# Entry
Amino acid sequence: MGNSNSRAEKIKNFDPNGVGLKNGHFIGLPFEEADAQIVLLPVPWDVTVSYGAGTATGPANILEASTQLDLLDPDVPDAWKMGLYMRPPSTDWLNRSEALRPGAERYIEQLEGGETPDPAILRHINQACEELRAWVETETASLLQGGQLVGIVGGEHSVPLGFLQALAERHKKFGVLQIDAHMDLRKAYEGFTYSHASIFYNALQLPQITQLTQVGIRDYCQEEVAFAEKSGRCTVFYDHELQRQQFNGTPWSETCKAIVDTLPQEVYISFDIDGLQPDLCPHTGTPVPGGIAFQQAIFLLLSVVESGRAIIGFDLSETAGLPHNWDANVSARILYKLSNLMGKSRL
Ligand SMILES: [Mn+2]
# Structure
């Protein structure tokens, strides 16, 4: 899995206590893709977002903010030695996303203004989203084929669909743990087949996903609740219920156990940054009050691994804002933890 000789050589020559290197790598780590065991694929894409845009530059901002992190992870001894590498975000997809955005905005405005929107714009966007989905599937399938573990860095929340399809080719049965303010179960939201609000409506077309467990949900519609109930594969831990349990003295560890108990042995984690409290992601497109605290989220992720389950992949989505800002800093830390825990559960 990755070239272990060159990985060992880099580990020997690297000082994990040194200043954060500005070598363009995630947290200044010394590895290249060829010797990495875990590869992060950035997907700078932000086209179907309905409210605030700005997630397309999320991966670049996270990469930049990551130089502020220290490498020691108290939950995963010598985590940095696993060999983690994040690809530079693709400028092609970023440019394409930015070129499509004005049309998408015009389309959404027309729709919300009660006008009949231009169907040609919609066709054009759906076609581009389909090409992106296929690209993500091809790239992640090839990394998995080489025995590397993969995480996706969004971008809007629609981007991991191709990755889920690549995983479904290799795993007969797996569950998804989704941390999110939203259910994302809308069918073709605003006409976009691959809307960020439809990611799990689309993902559940895969029979290999036998369970979807949603945590932190606090902004949703009746149609989504009905879909979740009817699917027979969804368990929803609504934010208001989680908070009230805590007000009544239920320990978070007990709640996490109940959440983890819903999941099968192999678990994919879909982490929408807006699942966290909005002061941890103030620039995300669709922030909602309430939500999961930082250490609560970490504890939940840790509970998955400590239960003996395997993390087979993950995405971190909807991080927006500018370089150097708080959103990117928080996201870089979540990303490092997700990578380390996936490694811990699999390597
Ligand atoms: Mn989402």
Observations:
- DSSP finds eleven helices and eight strands in the chain.
- The pocket of manganese (II) ion is lined by residues 157, 180, 182, 184, 272 (CB under 6 Å).
